[in-house]
Amino acid sequence: GTGKTHLACAAVAHLVAQGIYARYEWVPDLLSDLRRGLRPVASPQAGEQDVATQDYFDRLAQLQHVTALVLDDLGAQRSTPFAEEELTRIIDYRYRENLPLLITTNVSREAMNSRIGSRLSDRRFCHLVVLGSKDYRQRSPVLA
Question: What is the pTM of this model?
Answer without folding.
Answer: 0.75
